[in-house]
Design brief:
alpha/beta; Alpha/beta knot; Ribosomal Protein L25, Chain P; elongated
Amino acid sequence: MHRFFIFEPDKIEINRVIIVSNELIHQFCNVLKFHTGEQILFLDNTGNEYLCAIENISKKEIIANVIEKRENRAEPKIKICLYQAILKNPEKFESVLQKGVEVGICEFIPLITDRVERESLNKLPRLKKILKESAEQSGRGIIPILHEPVTFKNEIAAVRNCAAQFPNKKIVHLLAHTNEKKSLKEIVGNLTQNIEQINIYIGPEGGFTDKEVLSAKDAGFKIFNLGPRILRSETAGIITSSFIIIQNQF
């Protein structure tokens, strides 16, 4: 069944959904060629989904009746945030977003580390479109957030401040490093079910520097390796997130 997130000027009312945006009308009429009576799922980006049947379809407006409102069940039980170092090839970062949405990542934070070769992202509208379409395709109820880039140095400072101000907040910080002896499996095996959030930090093509790893350890990060094979940066975050979600049934 086709799924669509709804934003202004389109709107979800108590008993019906009204589509007036040219983009969705074109997609419904010319691309998917929907007919009256067909069922569709609309999403409000807060975790609710609406099973609807098309009542009227035209080139100016589409009206669908709400059959059932229900809670989306595809969102992970805890928040997983991926701090992905900005990659040299923009297409690889796009792949991280697409696959990350599919596995259940909630927020993406582009990371500027000592070894990155680019410090900004291009084509933000395209990246946000990738997030939206990936969320629709994978059955998510909320479109993951893409934040502005942050430096690793500032992130370390923010982690320290958060720990000092909110000592009872259950956040785990995991950083991938090839020279670390402890495996991800060991780290994940010790996670408890009352965790509120897991932050995963993945370095660029050249990895994190020893200085960065030491500063992360000093800030309370858990350092892990992903096994004997060296993974590409764009692969590491997806593998880590998937493993955590599957192992802990998040």
